């Protein structure tokens, strides 16, 4: 009986029982961190250096372009100032000629005398031949965008007024030559001194207005160039 009980207990013992003295199992982590490659830090430093070099190159290029734009703007201002000052001298001379001519014509108009050839053969109407080459070059060369808007607007208005003066004077001169060709020099210019007097006084006043605008604008341009 006792032998059977002992046999039953032996058969009922778990089959997984470990023998005495066996080592206990060790838990192994499922994810093992990989060591960082030695070259990674050096690569990050080199990438940072390259990025800084690119940014520095952009900055230097932008600085160079800015200096070039400033140089072009300064050259444009110098050329425009020189052109306007030259036009100022031209309209001043025209104004003096036209006032003198108007005074002479007024005397003949008051007495009713016929105009002698010496009055009209050397120029009955002689307006100034003003120029706009520097302004047009700056506009076509896209330099005006580098100048202050208020200054560009002021220059634009001045040159527009100058264009009106030049266009009207060219039309009048063309009409005079056509009249001279049709009627002859003496009949075209020797009659009606009062009308020629009014024409010369009108253009003398126009020239005087332009002269004042030129002088003020040239002074402003020179002050701006000194301040740059």
Give a verbal description of the structure:
- By secondary structure, the protein is mainly α.
- The chain has one domain (about 50-225).
- About 75% of the residues lie in helices and about 0% in strands.
- The chain has helices at about 1-10, 40-110, 115-120, 135-140, 150-185, 185-190, 195-225.
- Helix 5 (about 150-185) packs antiparallel against helix 7.
- The longest helix is centred in the first third of the chain and has 73 residues, at about 40-110.
- The chain starts with a helix and ends with a helix.
How many discrete structural domains? 1
Q: Structural class from helices and strands?
A: mainly alpha
Largest sheet: none
- Beta-strand proportion: under 5%
Tell me the series of helices and strands, N- to C-terminal.
HHHHHHH
Assembly type: single chain
What share of the residues lie within helices?
Answer: over 70%
Cα separation of the termini: 122 Å
In short:
Helices cover 75% and strands 0% of the residues. It is an all-alpha fold and 228 residues long.
Summary keywords:
228 residues; elongated; mainly alpha; 7 helices
Itemize the secondary structure elements and their pairings.
Blueprint: H1 2-12, H2 39-111, H3 117-120, H4 133-140, H5 149-183, H6 185-190, H7 193-227
């Amino acid at each position: 009986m006792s032998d059977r009980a002992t046999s039953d207990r032996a058969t009922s013992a778990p089959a997984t029982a470990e023998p005495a003295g066996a080592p206990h199992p060790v838990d192994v982590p499922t994810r093992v961190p990989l060591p960082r490659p030695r070259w990674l830090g050096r690569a990050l430093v080199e990438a940072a250096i390259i990025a800084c070099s690119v940014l520095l190159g952009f900055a230097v290029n932008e600085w160079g372009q800015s200096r070039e734009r400033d140089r072009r703007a300064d050259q444009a201002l110098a050329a425009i100032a020189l052109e306007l000052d030259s036009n100022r001298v031209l309209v001043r001379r025209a104004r003096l000629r036209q006032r003198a001519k108007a005074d002479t014509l007024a005397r003949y108009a008051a007495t009713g005398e016929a105009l002698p050839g010496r009055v009209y053969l050397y120029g009955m109407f002689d307006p100034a031949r003003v120029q706009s080459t520097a302004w047009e070059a700056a506009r076509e060369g896209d330099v005006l965008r580098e100048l202050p808007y208020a200054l560009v607007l002021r220059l634009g208005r001045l040159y527009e007024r100058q264009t009106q003066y030049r266009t009207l004077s060219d039309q009048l001169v063309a009409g005079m030559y056509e009249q001279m060709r049709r009627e002859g020099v003496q009949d075209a210019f020797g009659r009606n001194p009062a009308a020629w007097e009014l024409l010369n006084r009108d253009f003398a006043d126009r020239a005087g207005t332009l002269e004042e605008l030129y002088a003020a604008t040239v002074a402003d341009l020179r002050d701006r160039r000194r301040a740059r």
